Amino acid sequence: MSLRRWICDVIVQRNVRFQGAVVGRFLATEAKDKAVDITAADEQPIYSNDPLYQKELTEKRNKSRLNPEHRNILMGKPPYEQPIEWYHNTVKYKKRMLGRYGFEGNKEPVGFAWPTPEEVKILQEYERVAFPVSLQERWKKLKEKKRIKAEKVKARHVYQFNLAAEAEIAEKLLKIDQWTAELNARVAKKEAEMEAARLRKARLMEEIRKHFGFKISPHDERFKTMLEQKEKEERKQKKEAKKKAKEEKLKSMIQKMNQGQETDSTKSVE
Question: Nearest Cα to 107, choosing from 80, 132, 126?
């Protein structure tokens, strides 16, 4: 299309639209000014019973633009009023329509949904071969199977518990010698401490007796005073001995450090 032809078409279309708008406004103004006789209108609308008119009216009312079968499904009705495909005449399809839409699903009597005597025999033979045991017997076997499984689980737990107990007992039996030696050591230590305390007390009593020159009762206040003084002196001596041991240990550590430094310096010089 040439440019000149295209420009001409655009101008013609614009003029046509303009003329249409002017004429429409003129007619609307004329109808507005003209009086309308309401009494001349019909009180009842006129409907045609023509099938073609009714079909056209129904199609106009269908705003969804769905196919008839789809619209029937949407409205809860059977999709087809008459069989269209070959499988629409099968018993399986008719049973499906009967189960989905009820008696409106098909025009067949309800008895067609029941199996025939031949089908009943086939089903009975299938059940006899597939399920030779009755439902009650199967239920009993299932309960027995669950009981046996529960007993196995219980026995396994008991066995594991016994194994754990035996392992714990064996471990403790291995440690019994060690525990016996530790107990004997604690008893010997306690006895040694008690014996040392006894000897200490006897020594203090002997020292106090020598101090007074005669045997004095432990309940005497002089004895108690002297005993307290002696204990105080012993604590002081122990404290000094401990302090001296600590100093000796520190001196030995310093000597070792000095010897190590001297050794390192000698090696570096060599």
Answer: 80
Q: At 60, which amino acid appears? A: K
| Tens digit of each residue's pLDDT (9 = 90 or more) over 96-144 | 888 888 887 777 787 888 888 898 899 889 988 888 888 888 899 999 9
Mean pLDDT of the region 197-217: 72
Residue carrying structure tokens 């099938």: 51
Checking if the pLDDT of 79 tops 80, the result is: yes
Residue 148: C-alpha distances to residues 135, 140, 145, 157 (Å): 20, 12, 5, 14
- Strand, helix or coil at 134? coil
pLDDT in tens, 241-250: 888 888 888 8
Q: Smallest Cα–Cα separation from 230: which of 193, 209, 204, 210? A: 204
Closest residue by Cα to residue 93 from 83, 235, 194:
83
Residue 78 burial (10 A CB sphere; 0-12, 13-18, 19+): middle
Which of residues 176 and 23 earns the better pLDDT score? 176
Place of tokens 């003129």: 26
> Hunting for tokens 């041991």 — which residue is that?
245
Residue 132's SS3 state is coil
Measure the CA angle with vertex 181, ends 180 and 186; round to 5°: 95
The token duo for 194 is 């008690």
